[in-house]
């Protein structure tokens, strides 16, 4: 059996704060023991473990003392990666991500409107993708 993608880890200045943001946006839970140094989210149905290979890939966050926010779409600290979050309608999902602490990015490269770029509270770009 091939390995399964278990965890995607985002560097940030405060793991608990960013974990709470994504928990609210995604409707996932914080794993017991999460703190400002390391926070893991638990998706519905649980994450992948040695005992539960049918679980889902999840997100974790780790504090970096000398954190510098990404400077997408260019600059000294490019994004390096981003998350795409699928939604039925961007206009319906946007108010909730803004209320959770996201902000709309100044750069919006989608000419068709099929995705919209936001910044999470730590400055990572992410997209809502949908109709």
From TrEMBL:
Domain VOC: start-end pairs: 4-131
InterPro entries according to UniProt: Glyas_Bleomycin-R_OHBP_Dase (IPR029068), Glyoxalase_6 (IPR041581), VOC_core (IPR037523)
Pfam family, one: Glyoxalase_6
Name of the molecule in the record: VOC family protein
Natural source organism: Phycicoccus avicenniae
């Amino acid at each position: 059996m091939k390995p399964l993608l278990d965890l995607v880890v985002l560097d940030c200045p405060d793991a608990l704060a960013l974990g709470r943001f994504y928990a609210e946006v995604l409707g996932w839970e914080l794993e017991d023991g999460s703190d400002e140094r390391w926070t893991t989210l638990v998706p519905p149905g649980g994450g992948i473990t040695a005992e539960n290979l049918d679980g889902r890939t999840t997100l974790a966050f780790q504090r970096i003392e000398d954190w510098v926010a990404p400077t997408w779409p260019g600059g000294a600290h490019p994004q390096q990666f981003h998350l795409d979050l699928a939604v039925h309608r961007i206009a319906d999902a946007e108010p909730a991500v803004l209320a959770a602490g996201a902000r709309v990015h100044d750069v919006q490269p989608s000419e068709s409107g099929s995705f919209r770029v936001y910044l999470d509270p730590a400055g990572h770009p992410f997209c809502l993708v949908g109709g």
